[in-house]
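hey so u asked for the seq, here:
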Amino acid sequence: MFLITAQFRPSRSKRNAEKEGVVFYRITGEVAENGRRPQRNINSDIHAADASVFKTGRAEILSQLRLLYCVIERRKDSGQTFTIDDVTEDFRKALTGDESMGATIARSRTEFSLRNEIVSVGREFKGDFNYVLTELRDTVPGNIYDYIFNLAQSLKNEKRISLARNFLSLLANLKLFAEGKELYFQEIVKDYVHRYADWLKQTGITDSTQSFYLRSFRAILNKAHDDGLIESTSGWFHEVNTSVVNPAKISDGKLNRKLMLKIKSLDLTDNRHAALVRDMFMFGFYCGGMELIDISNLEYANIQNGLLTYNRRLKGLERKVVLGEQAKKILKRYHGDSEKYLFPLLTLSENAQFVTIRNYVGQSLKIIGKAVNYPRLSFSMNITAFHSMLSQVNIPELLLKTK
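ran it, structure tokens below
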């Protein structure tokens, strides 16, 4: 698999301080016989004063990255042996509009998903492309690890990225529990589920994270049952923690106006991570209640003319929210901290599974909760607080209020 990244090289001219730098592409080839991966750099025709070109010239850079992908795909599909130098030479021709590259140039201008086994794009622009994983892993009959991996890959192809990540998180956790040993469906019985649940408790992770892993495990086993790979799992999960934490069952479960104002005005200048989590919590409240995963995945493209539009994770339903001044003020604090996301949480934790990020958020919420004397604070309380406070207001009368 090739790796392509876009980078910026500032001008090194001492005579002309105003000379612009250039965007170039680094191509990392497949592993050679000597065990090394060759690299080549090739300049684009995109010049700029500084790296802000990654924002201002993003569309053009993406177009050229797609062209570079098509160049590599063409060589791959030819079935002939080729080198990284062949790729750079083809790309130079394509950039100049050489007639021999006409079909490749035309394909690069169409909409399609990148084949993940051919090329990966560097993190700066990776999220701008859709990927299709055309090849699944060869499976060992009855191996639950292979089953989960291939199921996650299929979900990615269906663009159900969130659920795929959940299953991959479970896969990594099950491997830890099994201490590197292979795991087969025939070994999964009620006792195994209970031993796994007990082990999760001993790891010291939060109740909600334990519930997350067990609910994901249950979903996998139910799917395997439907596929005829395992017998009935009835009753296996009745005595373990699969409940979703309901803020309404914690204390009174409601954050009143006084507590919300405390959270909003909390001075967290010495803890930028907790400040980020607090701001995301308040943003969710100002937007009528939002889940952590929905807020984390919000992109600049989700906002047009002050209107936030996104699809909810649970059911995929589209939701539109008119942003108020408080929500806009929060967004302004983080504008530019990430090339893609409204909040830089995923950027700060780019290599982590989402369950790890959720634990990270949980630690910050403990700090915030302790500071406002509400130690059982959870992120979903931004939703319950909104609905609780909304239920105490007659909206129709407020809309027509004249004094």
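DSSP finds 17 helices and nine strands in the chain. The two ends are 67 Å apart (CA to CA).
lmk if thats what u needed
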